[in-house]
């Protein structure tokens, strides 16, 4: 039964990827300039290379053959060269993408650790002053423009108090070879004598961007957890559980939390694309060498192969997370399973 | 011995249009081992009374009563914690829509286990889980579920409403309550399951001596299973007494109309003849008539009916009407 559902999700996934690759492929033709240059990233191919490239990209044939050739290249890992650096796009992506994932992961972690308990507190003490304060702060944080908030934080904590550095991932003093691409595991794996100092430095670099980026998902978590909990608290099964003689906290953990977290989880999947957009902005402000900064640079440089590659990676990530959350939601929610099976 | 003894219970709700008296001086008593039916149209305050007994009424309600005794203890005088403790120990309640009263994301086994209080288990904590499982299976057998294995491993949505209600009853009797309040327990069920559940409730009453307060809006379905009946109209108690006597000789016009509206109670009714019904409909809570609330609809209302009639008594039969039907003054 559940396999049936998973197969259907996989079908959906394949269709979305089909549409996505179609779009990415059409960009090569829609961007100004020669499609050959847009696809390959070689700005002035010489006379020897030109016929090989035309043959490889099937540019003499129709769009269908071109699209199939494009798909083959994507699958083989030949994503063209970056116009700016003349390095393979896929290599550059593999350098910057983990940095973004790391930042987003820590921001999400913060939002879970802070958002869920605060949301619960706001729901339980809905009419108490503490609940109101939490709701107000959540609304405030939800509506803060992140660029302004980030600058404010930099002015306060980096320039004013000097607690955290203003930009970057780690100080240039430390030489950390990239193994996984994620900074903290890399430092632990590096085996350098100064790994403790490097770790401290990396964490100090991480604090501010992660906190600024976490503002939005945390407030979203607070608001959704609060609403879901208030809704669940009205349900008959909560009253039944109370009538059984369970204490308030027992009812909360055994019946309230699980039912309230289901809609929150689903919302998290939907909010993920916003989170990635915000991550790009905060990368720009904190000069965090992630995919957002790289993509924004590529856009301003009209680096078409890089834009194409970045688009593919970011969209795939958002789609994958969305579908993953959907599947998780179904796995945890018996009612959704019932609907999924018709 | 009187288990529950309530005198002149009044429930009022403060609204923007003023104070609304939803339940007006209702008296209710319940002996040990008795099944009492509480009958009335929807909106007559049956469920409110049940909620007031279990103590889960909203904060906005004002509860007043001359006497609100549970086993000789006045519950309204007790602090909230103690009140909850006594009620949680002695009174269990089942509701109208059983499938909504079960947590949709928890297995039946989990929900059944947590309703078994620890002090009912023998042995130490190390075999508590096994004890609970044994007890849960026994409870399911008691309420007439034979496939305990599959039911325990199901989610509520996988079970029918009837089975859900049986599970609710199993959870309710897990703590051996003295009183079971069943608030329209069979509204969502089909006829055969309804009969099954009523038989289950009355067998629990006979075998374990558990008192039952059965709330319903269908007189015919509960008349067979109850020893005593209380009839409510618009938050006023109109008549109460032994079921058989009350059905044979109702004193109040409303009870009379209620009985006459059920074909089962009138074997000599001609085919295709019209059923008796009072004119008009039940008033809204904002526009309640003064005095006897049946007044505007009552076929033999007179001037005196603008004053609320006092509860009169003839042996075990109580009624509140100025002009009772077929009533002979005692010589």
According to CATH, the homologous superfamily of the domain at 2-226 in chain B is P-loop containing nucleotide triphosphate hydrolases
User: Which residues of chain A sit in consecutive blocks of at least 5 with pLDDT less than 50?
Assistant: none
| Helical content of chain B (DSSP H or I, runs of 4+) | 25-40%
- CATH level-four homologous superfamily name of the largest domain in chain A: MetI-like
Family (chain A): Belongs to the binding-protein-dependent transport system permease family. OppBC subfamily.
Pfam family, one (chain A): BPD_transp_1
GO molecular function, one term (chain A): dipeptide transmembrane transporter activity
Subcellular location (chain A): Cell inner membrane; Cell membrane
Task: Describe the structure in your own words.
Chain B: This is Cationic peptide transport system ATP-binding protein. Chain B: Its main location: membrane. The complex is a heterodimer of chains A (342) and B (331). Helix content of chain A is 77%, strand content 0%. With 342 residues, chain A is mainly alpha-helical. Chain A has two domains: 75 residues, no CATH class; 212 residues, MetI-like (MetI-like fold). The model of chain A has no long low-confidence stretch (mean pLDDT 83). The radius of gyration of chain A is 24 Å and the shape is globular. Chain B is of the alpha/beta class and 331 residues long. Chain B has a domain of 225 residues: P-loop containing nucleotide triphosphate hydrolases (Rossmann fold, 3-Layer(aba) Sandwich). In chain B, the strands form two sheets. Chain B has an eight-stranded mixed sheet with strand order 7-8-9-3-10-11-13-12, sandwiched between helices. In chain B, strands 1, 2, 4, 5 and 6 form a five-stranded antiparallel sheet that branches. The chains are: A mainly alpha (342), B alpha/beta (331).
């Amino acid at each position: 039964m559940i396999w049936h559902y998973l197969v259907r999700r996989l079908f959906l996934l394949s269709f979305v990827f089909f549409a996505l690759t179609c779009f990415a492929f059409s960009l090569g033709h829609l961007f100004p300039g020669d499609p050959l240059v847009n696809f390959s990233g070689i700005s002035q191919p010489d006379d020897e290379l030109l016929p090989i490239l035309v043959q490889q990209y099937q540019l003499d044939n129709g769009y269908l053959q071109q699209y199939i050739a494009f798909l083959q290249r994507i699958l083989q890992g030949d994503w063209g060269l970056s116009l700016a650096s003349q390095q393979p796009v896929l290599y550059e992506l593999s350098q910057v993408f983990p940095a973004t994932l790391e930042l987003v992961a820590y921001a999400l972690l913060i939002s879970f650790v802070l958002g869920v308990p605060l949301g619960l507190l706001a729901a339980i003490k809905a009419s108490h002053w503490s609940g109101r304060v939490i709701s107000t702060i959540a609304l405030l944080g939800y509506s803060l423009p992140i660029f302004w908030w980030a600058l404010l934080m930099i002015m306060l904590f980096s320039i004013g108090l000097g607690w955290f550095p203003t930009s970057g991932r780690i100080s240039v003093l430390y030489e950390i070879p990239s193994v996984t691409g994620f900074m903290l595991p890399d430092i632990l794996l590096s085996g350098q004598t100064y790994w403790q100092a490097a770790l401290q430095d990396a964490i100090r670099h991480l604090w501010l961007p992660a906190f600024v980026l976490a503002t939005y998902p945390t407030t979203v978590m607070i608001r959704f957890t609060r609403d879901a909990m208030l809704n669940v608290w009205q349900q008959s099964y909560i009253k039944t559980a109370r009538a059984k003689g369970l204490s308030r906290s027992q009812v909360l953990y055994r019946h309230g939390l699980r039912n309230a977290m289901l809609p929150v989880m689903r919302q998290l999947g939907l909010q993920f694309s916003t989170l990635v957009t915000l991550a790009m902005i905060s990368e720009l402000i904190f000069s965090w060498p992630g995919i957002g900064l790289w993509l924004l640079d590529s856009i301003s440089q009209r680096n078409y192969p890089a834009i194409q590659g970045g688009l593919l990676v970011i969209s795939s990530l958002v789609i994958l997370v969305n579908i993953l959350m959907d599947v998780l939601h179904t796995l945890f929610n018996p009612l959704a399973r019932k609907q999924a099976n018709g | 011995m009187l288990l529950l003894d309530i005198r002149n219970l009044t429930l009022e709700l403060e609204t923007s249009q003023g104070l609304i008296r939803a339940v007006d001086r209702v008296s209710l008593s319940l002996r040990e081992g008795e099944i009492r039916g509480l009958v009335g149209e929807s909106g007559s305050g049956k469920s409110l009374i049940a909620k007031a007994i279990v103590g889960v009424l909203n904060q906005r309600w004002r509860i007043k009563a001359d006497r609100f005794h549970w086993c000789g203890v006045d519950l309204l005088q007790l602090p909230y914690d103690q009140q909850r403790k006594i009620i949680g120990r002695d009174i269990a309640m089942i509701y109208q829509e059983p499938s909504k009263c079960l947590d949709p994301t928890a297995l039946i086994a989990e929900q059944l286990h947590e309703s078994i209080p620890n002090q009912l288990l023998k042995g130490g904590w190390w075999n508590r889980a096994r004890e609970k499982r044994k007890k849960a299976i026994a409870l399911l057998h008691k309420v007439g579920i034979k496939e305990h294995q599959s039911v325990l491993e199901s989610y509520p949505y996988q079970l029918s409403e009837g089975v859900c209600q049986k599970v609710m009853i199993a959870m309710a009797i897990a703590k051996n309550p003295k009183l079971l309040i069943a608030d329209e327990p069979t509204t969502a069920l089909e006829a055969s399951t309804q009969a099954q559940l009523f038989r289950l409730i009355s067998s629990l009453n006979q075998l374990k001596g558990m008192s039952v307060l059965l709330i319903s809006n269908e007189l015919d379905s509960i008349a067979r299973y109850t020893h005593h009946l209380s009839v409510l109209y618009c938050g006023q108690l109109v008549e109460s007494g032994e079921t058989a006597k009350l059905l044979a000789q109702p004193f109040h016009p409303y009870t009379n109309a209620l009985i006459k509206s059920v074909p089962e109670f009138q074997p000599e009714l001609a085919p295709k003849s019209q059923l008796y019904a009072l004119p008009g409909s039940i008033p809204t809570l904002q526009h309640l008539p003064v005095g006897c609330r049946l007044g505007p609809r009552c076929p033999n209302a007179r001037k005196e009916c603008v004053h609320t009639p006092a509860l009169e008594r003839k042996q075990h039969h109580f009624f509140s009407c100025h002009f009772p039907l077929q009533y002979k003054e005692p010589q």
